[in-house]
Amino acid sequence: MRFISTRGLAEPLGFSDAVATGLAPDGGLFLPETLPDLSAQWAQWAGLGYAELCYEFIKLFATDISPDTLREIVRKSYQHFDHAQTAPLVALDSSTYVLELFHGPTLAFKDFAMQLLGNLYEHQCAQRGESINVLGATSGDTGAAAIHALLGKPGTAIFILYPDGRVSPLQERQMTCTGADNVFALAIDGSFDDAQAALKTIFGDTAFRLKNRLSAVNSINLARVLAQCVYYLYAWLQLPSEARERAEFVVPTGNFGNVLAGWLLRRMGVPIPGFKVATNQNDILYRLFTTGEYRVAEVQPSLAPSMDIQVASNFERFLYYQLGSDAAKVREVMAACAKDGVYRFEDFDRSAFSASRCTDAEIPEIIARVRRRYGYLVDPHTACAFKELSPEKVSVVLATASPTKFPETIGEAIGAEPKHPRLEVLGKLPIVKHRLPASVKAITDFVEAHAV
Ligand SMILES: *Cc1c(COP(=O)(O)O)cnc(C)c1O
């Protein structure tokens, strides 16, 4: 199978090259040239374990990796999850389910995609006899998930920039207490935007990028989106058939990567009726799906920080299909969005989506309400999804992080702080971080000195 860019000006690539490249050279995002039709196939996958199901699904796309190798890559990717079902589906009542996506190494859903991506990178390094240096910036969860995907892997090093003093103490510990000598947590004297701006300049320097075999980890990597399709399918296969007809996946949303994966699965012929895009107070996507207008706004930091976004980077993939797979039109709309910060969609099919938004004031209230009603504890991101469940639907809420990662907010909501044994252990390990000014030169010097 080959992968094309949403902007149509890049050479189509095979799976491994598209994964290694990340962002297409024309600035677009990779998508399969044609989507497989699973309508006659999905039901045969009922009863498979998580890793087996993932293998069957990814095999349809990763046609340049031998089946045995791929099976092993997938098996390794889910071995560090601490629940036998990997992504357990929990019934709260007959019309409310929670899909727990927080049993991976960093206790948030990004592990599902990042663990797979890490093992794909490792395989590529071994196969090509090359090393790879991963460079990224994080305001929290992505960096920790990336670090735990690559730590200790031969032929790789990972450098994660984060704003010093502006990520949660737990998130910082997840990045800095690994003890792995191929992990470099770079605490930048500046904001997340400063770190991101430096990163952009560094990746724009082609000579530096090629010399140091730099690769990015961001939510637009094709492998991440495909890995995320799998848990929708896994949950779908477990739903009773009468529940399927009224099912709505309710997804705490930031960059649109997670919910896009579910929607792609629907496009491949799995008859999921609909999705709810649940945002926090950074509600660009809520406004889009309720008004048809995409308007960029300032980020307001919130209690659900991994959903604090200004532009929804994965939205471009959805747009591509919305515009009838017309890459020229995608370029036009993306240029208009970049120039004016706003775009009004005329004919825009929103039929598969509903939307909700949740303010910071509501988050602790919702956590307390869900606890009272179902005896179930949700983290601040998942709380946004519980804002308003549709009574006529069967809701499958994606729980994107463990409540134990957010003890302060949970404490405020219910008067007690949850604990996780793995996070307790972290508190006793030494922090290893490298403080750097937010200057491109300081960062590139550091990377050159430590690259593998
Ligand atoms: C990243 C993240 C989200 C948002 O996911 P997107 O794919 O960006 O929409 C939601 N919740 C948590 C806990 C996250 O880490």
TrEMBL record:
<dbReference type="InterPro" id="IPR036052">
    <property type="entry name" value="TrpB-like_PALP_sf"/>
</dbReference>
<feature type="modified residue" description="N6-(pyridoxal phosphate)lysine">
    <location>
        <position position="110"/>
    </location>
</feature>
<feature type="domain" description="Threonine synthase N-terminal">
    <location>
        <begin position="2"/>
        <end position="78"/>
    </location>
</feature>
<dbReference type="InterPro" id="IPR000634">
    <property type="entry name" value="Ser/Thr_deHydtase_PyrdxlP-BS"/>
</dbReference>
<keyword id="KW-0456">Lyase</keyword>
<dbReference type="GO" id="GO:0009088">
    <property type="term" value="P:threonine biosynthetic process"/>
</dbReference>
<keyword id="KW-0663">Pyridoxal phosphate</keyword>
<dbReference type="Pfam" id="PF00291">
    <property type="entry name" value="PALP"/>
</dbReference>
<dbReference type="Pfam" id="PF14821">
    <property type="entry name" value="Thr_synth_N"/>
</dbReference>
<comment type="pathway">
    <text>Amino-acid biosynthesis; L-threonine biosynthesis; L-threonine from L-aspartate: step 5/5.</text>
</comment>
<dbReference type="GO" id="GO:0004795">
    <property type="term" value="F:threonine synthase activity"/>
</dbReference>
<dbReference type="Pfam" id="PF24857">
    <property type="entry name" value="THR4_C"/>
</dbReference>
<dbReference type="InterPro" id="IPR004450">
    <property type="entry name" value="Thr_synthase-like"/>
</dbReference>
<dbReference type="InterPro" id="IPR029144">
    <property type="entry name" value="Thr_synth_N"/>
</dbReference>
<keyword id="KW-0028">Amino-acid biosynthesis</keyword>
<comment type="similarity">
    <text>Belongs to the threonine synthase family.</text>
</comment>
<dbReference type="InterPro" id="IPR051166">
    <property type="entry name" value="Threonine_Synthase"/>
</dbReference>
<dbReference type="InterPro" id="IPR037158">
    <property type="entry name" value="Thr_synth_N_sf"/>
</dbReference>
<dbReference type="GO" id="GO:0030170">
    <property type="term" value="F:pyridoxal phosphate binding"/>
</dbReference>
<protein>
    <recommendedName>
        <fullName>Threonine synthase</fullName>
        <ecNumber>4.2.3.1</ecNumber>
    </recommendedName>
</protein>
<feature type="domain" description="Tryptophan synthase beta chain-like PALP">
    <location>
        <begin position="99"/>
        <end position="337"/>
    </location>
</feature>
<keyword id="KW-0791">Threonine biosynthesis</keyword>
<dbReference type="InterPro" id="IPR001926">
    <property type="entry name" value="TrpB-like_PALP"/>
</dbReference>
